[in-house]
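hey so u asked for the seq, here:
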Amino acid sequence: MHTILTTMNTADTLNTDPRRGFAARMKHSLATTFAIFGAAALLLLSACEDAPPNSFVPVPFVEAYLFVDRPIEGIVIASSQSLSAPFEYESGMLADADVQLSGGGNTYALAYRVVNGAGSYWYPDTTALIQPSTAYTLTVRLKDGGVMTASTTTPERIAWMRKPAKLLQYPTDTTKLQSPDSLRIQWTPGNTQEFIIRIQCLDTLAYGAYLTPPTNEDNGRTNNLSNFETPKRNSFYSTTRWGFIQATGVPTVWTGFRWYGRNAVAIIAPDKPFLDWFKMTRFSGNPQYNPQFSNIRGGTGIFASASLIEEELFLLKRVK
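ran it, C-alpha cells below
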C-alpha cells in the first residue's frame, strides 16, 4: 500500500514577496494524499485476521514547477509512504538527494531547506531566474543509486494589457452590475492555449488596518457561495479559488472572492504537463494518482513550467 503526497506548492500561505514566487505560496493547501492502490484492497486486508504483509517498497517521486522570471525553488523530492503506518509529511521527504537543474547553458546544484514545516530544494542565488522559451532538465540522484530525470520547455512570457483595478467595491447585489465592469482584465497570449486564474485572499483577519484612516475592523467572508461551501467541506478553509480560461481577457467574477480586503489576482500560462497535472489534482471530484500524467523517468510525479503574472487589489465590503 502506498500514498503519494502532492504539495502542488499552492496558494494558502500568506507570503506576498514576489521574489518568493507562486511556488513558495503553494505549499500547504494541496498537501493531500492520493492512494495508488484502491481502498477496496485495503478493506480486504483489514478484514483478514492474518498479520498485514510487509512487502511495501517506497516509490520515489518528484513534484517540481518552474515559473518564468522567478527564482528556482519548491522542488519536492520525496517517497511514497505505506498506508499501514502513520502518515508523516517530513519523513517522506528525501533531503539527501543530489538535485541539479540545467538549462540555458547553466547548471544549478540545488540545496534542501525547510520552510514552515515543508521541505523542498531551491537554488540559494535568487538572482538566477527561470527564463522563457527555454528547455530545462531536472536530474535527481538518490542515495540508493536511483536516478530520476525529466524535462520541460518554459512557455513564453506573458504580461498585463489591462490590470485588475487597485480598489474594488463589492456590490450590494451581484446580479445587477453596472457597465463597464471594473473587474475586466486582459493579458498577452504568449504561446499557451489555456490559462489558469487564481484569486487569493492575502489577509483573512485584518481589514480596517489597510483603510485610510486605519480602523480596528476585522475582515470577513463575502459568503457568495454559502449554499455550496460550508465548514464541512475542505474548500471552505482555502484562501484561494481557481478557474480555467480559454481566452486572454475576462471579467473577474465577484464569486471568485472568498474574503474582502487584500486579494491578489494571478494568471498562469502553463505548459501541457502542468495543466494536465493541475486539473487532475485540483478539479477531480475524487483525485487519485494517474500515471499517464507523469513525465518523470526513473520515478513518478511531475516536472512542469509556467509563466505567471499577478496583481494585488483591495476589495471593499458590500454596503448593506
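The first strand starts at residue 3 and ends at 6. The radius of gyration is 21 Å.
lmk if thats what u needed
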